[in-house]
Q: What sequence folds into this?
């Protein structure tokens, strides 16, 4: 079991470029999440998916889009990257529904720098 | 609105000393409370969680936390810290029906020999 995997680990973009962050889990979990982590701000939820085929906005969705491709995969897309999106991005998954008491399992993160 | 406050940004302790990391929450009803740990360059791992019942919960790696409703606190403790405990610790809260797991800003723990 690999758990939650994320690619790439590191990425540098120029302002205005686009990219997709990939996330996959092999635990047969229903819910998946994307967070960003900024110094002094903890983790903030960008988007989540309570089940295959559904997605919902979290706390800071502006500038991002997501796709729940299937039960295993949940991607995060930056259409036109901005320096304010420089951050560390974490994907997570949990067995049941969002807002439940489930433990969330985190990937190792993607460190993104936008110049 | 619910929020979580971790008042200590950085704590340094000697190996073998006891540890207490503070967490305060603001929410009207009893929340669900979590402590996660993030080792350098890694994702977050759950240490323990509290939903109801016994207010003292045991977690992995010898950690425990106590829920105190009167103080709106959920402090994390360990009796004897090991060098491998050096990491960043996050308190988080969610309540039934909410969509967000709210994280505190984290406390970075340094362990000196």
A:
């Amino acid at each position: 079991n690999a758990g939650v995997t994320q690619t790439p680990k590191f990425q540098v973009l120029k302002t205005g470029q686009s990219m997709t962050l990939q996330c996959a889990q092999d635990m047969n979990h229903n819910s998946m999440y994307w967070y960003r982590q900024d110094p002094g701000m903890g983790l903030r939820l960008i988007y989540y998916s309570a089940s295959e085929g559904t997605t919902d906005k979290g706390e800071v969705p502006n500038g991002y889009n997501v796709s729940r491709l299937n039960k295993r995969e949940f991607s995060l897309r930056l259409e036109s990257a901005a320096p304010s999106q420089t951050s560390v991005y974490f994907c997570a998954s949990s067995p049941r529904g969002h807002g439940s008491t489930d433990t969330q399992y985190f990937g190792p993160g993607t460190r993104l720098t936008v110049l | 609105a619910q929020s979580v406050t971790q008042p200590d940004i950085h704590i340094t302790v000697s190996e073998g000393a006891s540890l207490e990391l503070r967490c305060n929450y603001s929410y009207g009803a009893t929340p669900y409370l979590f402590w996660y740990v993030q080792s350098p360059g890694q994702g977050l791992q759950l240490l323990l969680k509290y939903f109801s019942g016994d207010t003292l919960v045991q977690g992995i790696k010898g950690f425990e936390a106590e829920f105190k409703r009167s103080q709106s606190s959920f402090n994390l403790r360990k009796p004897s810290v090991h060098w491998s405990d050096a990491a960043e610790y996050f308190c988080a809260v969610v309540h039934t029906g909410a969509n967000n797991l709210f994280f505190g800003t984290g406390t970075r723990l340094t362990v000196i020999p």
